[in-house]
Write a structure and sequence with these properties.
The chain is α/β, with parallel strands linked by helices. The protein is built from 11 helices and 12 strands. Strands 3-2-1-4-7 form a 5-stranded mixed β-sheet.
Length: 348
């Protein structure tokens, strides 16, 4: 889904209704969905991290209220609100720990402060887990019993869903797969967290940019050099553009990234054994709509086949996610819905 939305009219929606919030370092996205996950309204506002966490909690609450009004609903008609936030976090305690994308918000009790400002209870989740749940509920994973979503961007987010279980872990660090070790050699790449050999250091957008610069510095010929000479910045987008024009270095970088991703996927397959692994986020090279995206996907699948147990490689679906930037708030709403259904079950 794109950021341009087609909203479901209220008279065609199926109650109950839920609000999902996707909190990021730049934007707050809030939307109302019905019981089938269809969007009734959507609102985006700036996070303004620099104004502090209490101001942020008020802005989140205001976004929730705006989305509810835009859907033509009252607060009393909302049966659950989910909030997906970047980590690190303490999910049972409802607080942030030391979130890299929310500087100065350390140890803030965000769940309860948003609930206070919004006037309604909040279900708290990791943002990658929320996005995974969105795909599991109504996206590419809707036919799976278990699935993993890898969000490819500056870092690598990971959400794991098994049945209705969100794999948060005992210490709310259950999906930090970007920081698993895939290279223990002395020359391993250094991750943004400062540790060597992490998955993120090889397969993220940051890694693509760094590996491209290293190849150019080593003297590899590439049409990228002309683009850079005219002021372009090295980025996965630039690398993709040149790969699509036939630049061999750019294509090599992208296919190497696919192979690194496959190594991570095999580790996940041999640990979780899910029905499927989906790739989402900003770095999917056009996905199914692009020849480059399709080649990236097939290279990933081929490397998985070379490395995984046959029963896993033959039966695990590897594909692109479909909800795009909407996965976070839809999944957060879905987590709010799951919490509501549990409460209803306890009442019966």
């Amino acid at each position: 889904m794109s950021e341009v939305h087609e909203f479901l009219p209220l008279d065609r929606a199926r109650a109950p209704f839920f609000v999902g919030v996707d909190l990021g370092g730049t934007n707050i996205k809030a939307g109302v969905v019905d019981d089938l996950g269809r969007i009734l309204s959507w609102h985006q506002t700036l996070t303004h991290v620099e104004r502090g966490p209490e101001a942020g909690a008020r802005r989140i609450a205001a976004a929730i209220h705006k989305a509810i009004r835009d859907a033509g609903l009252q607060l009393s008609q909302i049966d659950g609100v989910g909030l997906g936030s970047p980590g690190t976090m303490d999910i049972p305690g409802g607080r942030l720990m030391v979130p890299a994308n929310l500087k100065g918000w350390d140890y803030f009790p965000i769940r309860d402060r948003v609930a206070e400002h919004a006037g309604m209870p909040i279900t708290f989740a990791n943002d990658a887990t929320a996005a995974a749940y969105g795909e599991f509920w109504i996206g590419s994973g809707r036919d799976f019993h278990s699935m993993i979503l890898l969000t490819l961007g500056t870092g690598i987010g990971c959400g794991i869903v098994i049945g209705e279980l969100l794999l948060d872990g005992e210490h709310s660090h259950g999906g930090e797969f970007g920081h698993t070790i895939i290279d223990s050699t002395p020359g391993a790449r250094i991750c943004a967290c400062g540790q060597p050999g992490h998955f993120e250091a090889y397969a993220s957008a940051t890694a693509v940019t760094k590996r491209t610069r290293e190849a150019l510095d080593a003297g590899r010929a590439s049409t990228l050099l002309e683009r850079i000479a005219h002021g372009a910045e090295v980025s996965p987008k630039l690398v993709a553009e040149e790969a699509e024009k036939g630049d061999s270095l750019s294509l090599d970088i992208i296919l190497e990234t696919a192979r690194y991703l496959a190594i991570g996927m095999v580790n996940l397959m041999h640990t979780i054994d899910p029905n499927g692994i989906l790739m989402g986020g900003a770095m999917t090279f056009g996905g199914h709509d692009s020849e480059l995206g399709r080649r990236f996907l097939e290279e990933t699948r081929a490397e998985v086949r070379r490395r995984a147990y046959a029963v896993c490689s033959e039966n695990t679906v590897i594909d692109f996610a479909t909800l795009g930037g909407d996965a976070g708030f839809i999944g957060a709403a879905g987590i709010g819905r799951a919490d509501y259904l549990k409460r209803q079950l306890l009442k019966s």
